């Protein structure tokens, strides 16, 4: 399962989530959405990077996340 770190009022986060949903239409992926503003440690760790997509505690992508980038990172 992927972990998608995001926060409210983040245009890049909204775009990244749209890319995740597009991928889900064709591939069996699951992700858990985590608001970094609900956890001080996560906020400090990711505030300059979000959105962030992690898999097995490894950052796959962050920032401006496109469809092709996501496909390549997930090896789909």
Describe this structure in words.
With 76 residues, the chain is α+β, with helices and mostly antiparallel strands. The protein has a single domain, classed as 3-Layer(aba) Sandwich (Glutaredoxin), CATH 3.40.30.10. Helix content is 41%, strand content 25%. The protein contains 3 helices and 4 strands; from the N terminus they run E-H-E-H-E-E-H. Strands 2-1-3-4 form a 4-stranded mixed sheet, covered by helices on one side. The radius of gyration is 12 Å and the shape is globular. The mean pLDDT is 96. This is Thiol-disulfide isomerase. It holds the Pfam family Glrx-like.
Keywords:
76 residues; 25% strand; alpha+beta; Glutaredoxin
Helix percent reads 40-55%
Main CATH class: Alpha Beta
Task: State which percent range the strand residues make up.
Answer: 25-35%
Biggest β-sheet description: 4 strands, mixed
In CATH, the homologous superfamily goes by the name Glutaredoxin
CATH hierarchy: architecture? 3-Layer(aba) Sandwich
Strand order of the largest sheet: 2-1-3-4
| Structural class determined from secondary elements | alpha+beta
Alpha plus pi helix count: 3
- Provide the number of structural domains: 1
CATH fold-level name: Glutaredoxin
SS elements, strand count: 4
Poorly predicted residue ranges? none
Distance between the termini: 14 Å
The gross shape turns out to be globular
Radius of gyration: 12 Å
Compact description:
The protein is α+β, with helices and mostly antiparallel strands and 76 residues long. It has three helices and four strands.
Write the layout of secondary structure elements.
Layout: E1 2-6, H1 11-26, E2 31-35, H2 40-46, E3 52-55, E4 58-62, H3 67-74
């Amino acid at each position: 399962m992927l972990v998608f770190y995001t926060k409210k009022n983040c245009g890049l986060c909204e775009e990244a989530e749209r890319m995740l949903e597009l991928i889900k239409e064709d591939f069996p992926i699951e992700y858990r959405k985590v608001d970094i503003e609900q956890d001080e440690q996560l906020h400090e760790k990711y505030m300059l990077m979000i959105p962030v997509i992690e898999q097995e505690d490894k950052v796959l992508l962050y920032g401006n996340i496109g469809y092709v980038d996501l496909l390549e990172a997930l090896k789909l």
